[in-house]
C-alpha cells in the first residue's frame, strides 16, 4: 500500500490492507493481532505496522511510504535485500541488480497466471 502520510483515515487503512481495526486488535477473518493500544481514527500507521509486523519502506524526502503485508504465518521475506539478479538490458548487455546497491529500487514482477 502506497502512502503519502503515516497518519491515514481508518477506512483507508482497512480498504488498503484488508485488515479491520477492532477493539480486540487488527482482524482479518478469524485471525486477530493484538495491538499495543487501540487504533484510532486517523490511524498511526507506524505504530500499527510495528504491532502487526508489517514492513514500511520510507522515502520521506519524496513524501512517500510503502506499507508491506503483515507476516502472519511467517510468509513474508526475512529482509528487504534482493538476490543479485542478472538479466540482459535492451542492448543485450548483462545488467546486474547489485550495480544499484545503495540506491532505492522498485522491482516490479508480472506473471500471466
What is the element layout, followed by pairings?
Layout lengths: L1 E2 L3 E2 L1 H8 L2 E3 L2 E4 L2 E3 L9 E2 H8 L3 E4 L4 E4 L18 E3 L5 E3 L17
Antiparallel strand pairs: 1-8, 2-6, 3-4, 4-5, 7-8, 9-10
Explain this structure.
The structure is a single chain. With about 110 residues, this protein is α+β, with helices and mostly antiparallel strands. It has one domain (about 1-70, about 80-100). The protein contains 2 helices and 10 strands, in the order E-E-H-E-E-E-E-H-E-E-E-E. A 3-stranded antiparallel β-sheet has the order 1-8-7, with no helix packed on it. The two termini are about 20 Å apart. The model has no long low-confidence stretch (mean pLDDT about 85).
Compressed to H and E, one letter per element, the order equals EEHEEEEHEEEE
User: Any idea how many domains?
Assistant: 1
- Assign a percent range to the helix content: 10-25%
Number of strands: 10
Helix/strand class: alpha+beta
Summarize the structure.
By secondary structure, this protein is α+β, with helices and mostly antiparallel strands. It has helices spanning about 10-15, 45-50; strands at about 1-5, 5-10, 20, 25-30, 30-35, 45, 55-60, 65, 85-90, 95.
Quick tags:
113 residues; alpha+beta; 2 helices
